[in-house]
Structures are given as C-alpha cells and as structure tokens.
Design a protein that fits this description.
about 675 residues; mainly alpha; six-stranded mixed β-sheet; about 65% helix; about 5% strand; RNA binding; PPR_rpt; DYW domain-containing protein; PPR_At4g14850-like_plant; TPR-like_helical_dom_sf
Length: about 675
C-alpha cells in the first residue's frame, strides 16, 4: 500500500514538489521495523575514507540505525523521477541518504550523469563503485562516453563490455554515426549479431547527416522494417539536395507520419524557395488534426516572411495565442522575425516587450528588425540594453549591429564595433562581418578603404562583397573600382549576370552608352539573362505581382490611369523624374514613360486602388529600389496621405508625409 501510494504521487504533475518536500522531511512511513542490510560496497567505503574519490564523498552518509533503513523500491522510484525531470542534485540527495542501494539505484544515478555534458569523470567514479554492475550499468556508462563525444574511449569501453546486448551495439553505432564516423559504424553494423529497427535507423540517419544519401537510400531499401524515423531521414536527405519531387513521393507513400515528418517537409519546402507549398502543407497538417510545435511554427513563419504574407502570419499568431506555445520563447521569437520581415515593425516591438522570457536569439531578432527598417539608433540602444541585461552577444548580434550602423550611415561607430568584436567580446569576425564593413565603407564613399579591407580580409572574398562594391560605384560614379569589382565578381562566379548588369548600370549613370553596349554584348555572348525586376503586394490574402512595363495584370488599364493621375499631382508638388535611373539610350519622353511603369510604382498604384484608406501599403521588390521610385514614393505618401512601406533586397523604406525612414541614405 505504501509503495502504491507513492507511485501514484510520482505520476502526479506536481510530484516533483511532493518529492522535494519529502526529501527534506522524516516521514514515519520511510522506516522499517527490522534492520536494513547493506551492500558489500557500503561496508568497504566510508565517507572520506581512502579509496573514495573526493567528488563521490557527498554520496555517503553515516550508516543509519537498524530501525531507520530506507524503503529501497520507493527511493529508487524517487531517484528515477528526479533524473527524468533533469534534477540530478535532488536525485543525489535521495541517493546520499540511502543505507541500502541496489544495482538499479546505481544505474539510475549513472543515467543522470549520462544526460549531462562535462560530467564524464563523475560518471566514471560512480561506475567503478557499483558492486555488481550488470549490462544496463555498462550500457549507461557507454552512453556517458558517447554523449561526451569521446569516441575513442567509448570504443575502448565497448570492447570491454563482458555481455553485449542490442542496446550496447546500438549505443555505439549511434554514437559513431552522430560523430560522422560512418566507416567504423558500418563495420560494427556488419558485425552485429542481431539488428533491430534502432540499428537501421541509426545507420540510415547517419549516412543522411554525412551527405551520403545514395548509401542511405540503399540501406533504407534493404531494411526489413522501415520505421517513421528511417522514412523521415531519407526525406530529409532528398530535401537537402533539392530533390523535392522524390521527397514528396516518399512523404505521401509513408504508412504513418509523425510531427517530425511534417516539419521536415514544411521546412524543406521553405528552404528550397517553395514557401507557398510549405504553407499549404501546414494547413493540410492542421486540418488533419496534427498540432504544431515551435519547430513547425518557425518554418511556417519563415515561409510567411518569404511570401510577405502578413495576414497569414497573423493567423498563425492567433493559433499560437490559443495554444500552450504562447509562452514558448522560440515561437515568440519566430513571430517577431516574421513581423519584422513583413514590414510590421510596431507589431514586432509590441510582442518583444510582452514576452515573458527572452534569449539571445530573441534579442538578435529584434535588433536585426530595427536594423532592417533603418531604425539604427533603436537597434543600437537595444544592443546596449541586451548587454546590461547580462546577455553576451554572438556573431549574429554583430551582423545586426553593423547593419544598423550601415543603414544609419554611422561609419565611425560601425568601425568601432567591428574592431571591438574580438578584443572586447571574444567574437571572431567572419565573412559576413567583413561584408557589412565593406558595405558600410562603400555607401559612405570610402571605396578605396573598402577595397583595402577586402584585400586584408583573412577569408576568400564572397561574390556578394564585389556585388556590394559595384552597387556603390554606381552611386559614387567610380568606373575604375567598378571594373575591378566586376572582374573579380566574374572570376568568382562566371555565370553572374549581375556583374554585367551592375557594370552596365555604372556606365549608364555616367552616360557612357558605348561602354553600356559593349558590356551588354559580352553578356549576350555568355548567354546570360538579366534577372527581371518585379514587385508584389498582398491584397486580401492574394499576392499580385508586377514587372516593369507589365502587360499581363488584368487591372492594368485602371493602374495606368491611376499612375497618370498621380503623375500630374506629383508634378504640381515639385516632383521631377530622375532620368539617370532610365538605363536605356532613348529620348527624354521615352525615359519618363519607362520610369512611370517601374514595377514598384505599379504595385503602389494598385494598393492605393484596392486597400481601404488609412491602411499602409506594403510593397516588396526583388531588386534594390531605384532613386526615382524612391523620390516618387515620398511624394505619393504626402499627396495621398498614406504610409507606404517598401522592402527591397537590402532594407525597408517607410515613406510617410513626404519623407523616408532612410533619410535618403541607402
């Protein structure tokens, strides 16, 4: 009856509070009326005696009186419960007060150490003191070696196990696979006397993680039993290689799916630029009664960000609020990131303030959000708050900080942060940090300094660095460095149409039309095609896409009428088209018409036509917004009394009352 009562308490959700209180009291039910026997080990080793390692001395207490022996079964249950909840200290407290310990007792403590990294020595000291270790003892100690990633010691211990069972083999094979030592794992797999589903799962998953998908598939096809883990691993491998159709076929053929499988497909779609398919699958998953976890929401919200689907993102937010995930830090951080990337900075800020707990990723998401929206001062202020809160920055934090300085034109401050990374914070600058610094210098017109930094960088330059330099050369009209950047960009990426296009744009901005023609001829000879510029806007949960000079949209006639109307109003307000942005050798009238039909202007006009008054117009563009569209958007925001938010490839622009959040520095 006594043990049954406590077993019921252990299953109770509040059992750990019950146990902790019990461990601190002397309950009469814990006493026997007969003397308790002790293991030989208890007689041989007393606290502080020779041969007992110092770290272990806390496990021992003076022998209890004959009338105060422990209920071994109950104590073992308590230890197991504490270990499962991750409270090893409480488990050790029970262990220390036990006068009778069985092998199960020792194994439970050993299992507690196996869950903690950096406690291998403690685990070893426990293991050598077990009076009669059984196979479970050996397997648990093996898990301690594996979890500490000491694979040489693990292999040596594995070979010394007197009686290996399936768990012994599986633990060793899994450890080798997780450490990408598949050749050794394969040898053990072949030597294993009897394999089970865990063995096959470990090998298949290991090959996938090592990028050896063909071997994983071959093993999967020969597996006698294909578990959901094996199916999911193979699907993951295909998604990583962009083999979406094969992954889809396997997914729908699976006899059963778990949440991890659904997450694999959804994240795979998003990572392979198929966000719309990922969102659709998420809806199907929910309709089938499968509930999401933080990983699901992270992928779906990333998909919403890529699609700029703010309304769908808000629906996911509502779903989170109605579930236990509303207090989950990962889910909250994913929502902050989604709001920032969809242009709803105030919603992100509100959510950040209301979050009960924030980790480093949360702070990084909000700092990055401010930086992307050009709120450099707010980003840097938040960075200072983070440091004062005792949160140490990492490399991602500094990318956001440098981006904030970049968009705000804070050259000296950004340089100071870059130089302090290693010295003050122990964070090694990576290629992304050098890219940010090159961008910061280039935008400020320090093109020679930017080139020097590229040459001094310890990393091989990424093509994006030269693309950044090229873009700045157009603004500052520097053909010499533009040609240097284009040459290096083409050396790194011969198939880059962007190198030719940006170099031609530099020449066009300086009216060097012969050079423009020469570059375009070189591009044609290389069979390269320019990425067309397009913009899109979400109206009533439907995405409308526009290309420059669009001739497809069904409402094009009405859009052109709206643009013509806006053009007249803008002229009266003092707007003059920036003809340098018309990168074609044509007359002035034709240039004005080309500029008026740019994709972002078409999208803005459509938003004015279809969205209710007072609702911000959010436009997204796949290229950098041109200077003329930037000038026009400022003017339209004042004329129409409407906030216009444009996200291009580098940042957000908030146009309101004739001004832009970038302060014309972008």
């Amino acid at each position: 009856m006594r043990t049954a009562f406590f077993a019921g308490q252990l299953r109770n959700p509040s059992s750990h509070r019950f146990l902790r209180g019990l461990a601190l009291t002397e309950h009469p039910w814990l006493r026997f009326s007969t003397p308790a026997s002790k293991t030989p080990h208890d007689h041989a080793a007393k606290p502080g005696s020779a041969g007992v390692p110092a770290p272990m001395s806390k496990f021992y207490s003076p022998a209890a009186s004959p009338n105060e022996g422990d209920d071994v079964i109950l104590s073992n249950m308590m230890i197991t419960s504490y270990v499962r909840s991750g409270d090893l200290d409480a488990a050790l407290g029970v262990f220390r007060n036990m006068s009778v310990r069985t092998t199960v007792t020792w194994n439970s403590i050993l299992a507690g150490y196996s869950k903690l990294r950096g406690r291998l020595r403690d685990a070893q000291e426990v293991f050598v003191k077990i009076p009669q270790p059984d196979t479970v003892s050996y397997n648990t100690m093996l898990a301690c070696y594996v979890n500490s990633s000491d694979m040489e010691a693990a292999l040596g211990f594995f070979n010394r196990i007197p009686r290996k069972d399936a768990t012994s083999w599986n633990t060793m094979i899994t450890g080798l696979a997780r450490n990408q030592r598949m050749e050794e794992a394969g040898k053990l797999f072949s030597a294993m006397p009897s394999r089970n589903v865990v063995t096959w799962n470990a090998m298949i998953s290991g090959y996938v993680e090592c990028g050896e998908l063909d071997r994983a598939v071959k093993l999967f096809e020969t597996a006698p039993v294909k578990s959901v883990v094996a199916w999911t691993a193979v699907i993951t491998g295909h998604m990583k290689l962009g083999r979406i159709e094969t992954a889809e076929k396997l997914f729908w053929e699976m006899p059963e799916k778990n949440l991890v499988t659904w997450n694999t497909m959804i994240s795979g779609y998003v990572e392979n630029s198929r966000a719309e398919a990922g969102v659709k699958l998420f809806k199907k998953m929910m309709a089938g009664g499968v509930g999401p976890n933080p990983s699901t929401l992270s992928s779906v919200l990333l998909g919403c960000s890529e699609l700029s689907a703010l309304q769908l993102g808000k629906q996911v937010h509502q779903l989170v609020c109605k579930s236990p995930l509303h207090i989950d830090t990962t889910a909250g951080t994913s929502l902050i990131s989604m709001y920032c990337k969809c242009g709803a900075l105030e919603d992100a800020k509100k959510l950040f303030v209301e979050m009960p707990r924030r980790d480093l990723v949360t702070w990084n998401a909000m700092i990055s959000g401010y930086a992307q929206h050009g709120a450099g001062e707010l980003a840097l202020s938040l960075f200072d708050r983070m440091r004062k809160a005792g949160i140490s920055p990492d490399g991602i934090t500094f990318v956001a900080v440098l981006l904030a300085c970049n968009h705000a034109g804070l050259l000296d401050l950004g340089t100071g942060y870059f130089n302090s990374m290693r010295k003050d914070y122990g964070v090694e600058p990576k290629p992304d940090h050098y890219s940010c610094m090159v961008d910061l210098l280039s935008r400020a017109g320090k093109l020679d300094e930017a080139v020097d930094l590229i040459k001094k960088s310890p990393f091989k330059p990424h093509p994006a660095i030269y693309g950044t330099l090229l873009g700045a050369c157009r603004i500052h009209k520097n053909t010499k460095i533009a040609e240097f950047a284009a040459k290096n960009l083409l050396d790194l990426d011969p198939g880059s149409a962007a190198a030719y296009v940006q170099l031609a744009n530099v020449y066009a901005a300086m009216n060097k039309w012969k050079d423009v023609a020469r570059v375009r001829q070189l591009m044609n000879r290389s069979n390269l095609v320019k990425t067309p510029g397009y913009s899109w806007i979400d109206v009533k949960n439907k995405v409308h896409e526009f290309r420059s000079g669009d001739r497809i949209h069904p409402d094009l006639g009405s859009i052109h009428e709206k643009l013509n109307e806006l053009e007249e109003k803008m002229k009266l307000a003092g707007y003059v088209p920036d003809l340098e942005c018309a990168l074609h050798d044509v007359g002035e009238t034709e240039k004005k018409q080309l500029l008026l039909r740019h994709s972002e202007k078409l999208a803005i006009a459509y938003g004015l036509m279809k969205l209710p008054p007072g609702v911000p117009i959010r436009v997204f563009k796949n290229l950098r917004i041109c200077a003329d569209c930037h000038r026009a958007a400022k003017c339209i925001s004042e004329i129409e009394k409407r906030e216009i938010i444009v996200r291009d490839t580098t940042r957000f622009h908030h146009f309101k009352d004739g001004s832009c959040s970038c302060r014309d520095y972008w």
